[in-house]
Specification:
The protein has about 375 residues and is mainly α. The chain is built from 15 helices and no strands.
């Protein structure tokens, strides 16, 4: 089955599964980081790596919609794209922000309003108290929505592009190069985690790698077979080993070169992970496998948003301990709450989002048709 045929499905269950796995790969380590100091370093590496996968995955699955904006070359399509993204991300985020701000007594504070407007880490860490630490990546996402698609439109207009895939790939590369130069020139590598890795201006390129992967696979037009699956799995193993080696070295060394190559290693890992999971989508034949993938994809965003609030609430209600029963209670509470939240809050909002003009309600259509859009998200 070709990548194009995969993309004509309304959902790609293997990528939904990946999204869910990445969300739990953030949620679970945070439990151990909270209770086990000895395990915090390894747990942080796992959670940070999962976020990098989120970035590439987001850029990849939004690729068709961004290409649609570029091909139509009008601001009305871009407006629809932004409204759909904002309705998908902002309402749930604000609910989660209100919840965790209530826990910490921060409602109405300056930090609260910086979180609410996604500017707490725009050029540096501006908040006095970073009480909602996962919000940094959500800011990167939101600013990507308002930065990259307009950049692609303007690039096409200035270069008088014809809508070829090479044009989109070169625009993405230019965007990545520009952000990389800004990061190298102005990033404080001595404070890598706080002042570079979690700053929007230095990390917004991480999502563009996913878009670049989308363009590359569109051009590939190859069949997913056993040989290519094996090759993608080998590439995943290699990039995993490379990234974890770099992360471990960064724990022991302050060498700036490690921090300079970390974003590239993270992008390579994210791209290889998305490619591998895409290659195995045809193996999701059983209905229960599709259902599991879809379900995990549906709750992935609320899991990411609310797991810290649930963790902190349980820590206040129960005596401090880290036994298996406490972890199971935490995991069960997260799964139950996020399932109810998706169906009761998110799903109605998603159903009411504006549609792209001349598109069927599901968006199921060939990728090569500029007037239609596959794989809505």
């Amino acid at each position: 089955m070709t990548f194009q045929q995969h993309s004509r499905s309304e959902r790609i269950e293997s990528l939904d599964l990946l999204r869910g796995v990445a969300a739990f790969a953030v949620m679970i380590p945070h439990f151990f980081m909270y209770y086990l100091e000895d395990a915090s370093a390894l747990a942080e590496i796992v959670s940070v790596t999962a976020v990098e996968v989120f970035f590439v995955l987001s850029g990849f699955v939004l690729g068709p919609q961004i290409v649609l904006c570029a091909r139509r070359k009008n601001w009305a399509t871009l407006r629809t794209f932004l409204l759909r993204r904002w309705m998908r991300t902002i309402p749930s985020y604000l609910v989660a922000l209100l919840a965790i701000s209530t826990i910490f007594g921060q409602i109405g504070s300056a930090d609260f309003f910086r979180y609410a407007s996604y500017v707490q880490n725009l050029f540096s860490q501006h908040n006095t108290r970073d009480y909602y630490p996962v919000a940094w990546s959500l800011s990167v996402e939101e600013w990507y929505y308002v930065a990259f698609p307009p950049f692609l439109l303007l690039y096409g207009k200035l270069t008088r592009g014809t809508g070829e895939w090479f044009e989109y790939g070169s625009a993405a590369l230019l965007f990545i190069i520009f952000v990389t130069l800004v990061r190298v020139a102005y990033g404080d590598m001595a404070g890598w985690g706080e002042h570079v890795r979690r700053v929007v201006a230095f990390r917004i390129d991480s999502i563009a790698y996913g878009f670049l992967l989308y363009v590359a696979l569109q051009q590939g037009k190859f069949e997913w077979n056993t040989r290519l699956r094996s090759l993608s799995f080998l590439l995943l193993l290699l990039t995993t080993a490379l990234l974890f080696h770099i992360n471990l070295q960064m724990l022991e060394s302050d060498a700036a070169w490690l921090r300079h190559i970390h974003p590239f290693a993270s992008a390579a890992f994210g791209m290889s992970t998305v490619t591998f999971f895409l290659s195995i989508n045809s193996l999701f034949r059983a209905q229960w496998m599709k259902a599991v993938g879809t379900y995990l994809g549906q709750i992935s965003y609320p899991v990411y948003l609310f797991h810290l609030a649930i963790l902190y609430t349980l820590a206040r209600l129960l005596p401090p301990h880290n036994d298996p029963q406490h972890f199971l209670l935490y995991a069960g509470a997260v799964v139950l709450f996020t399932t109810l939240f998706f169906h009761g809050f998110e799903k109605p909002i998603l159903a009411s989002r504006p549609r792209y003009r001349h598109l069927p309600v599901t968006g199921v259509a060939p990728i090569h048709d500029p007037e239609q859009l596959p794989t809505p998200r």
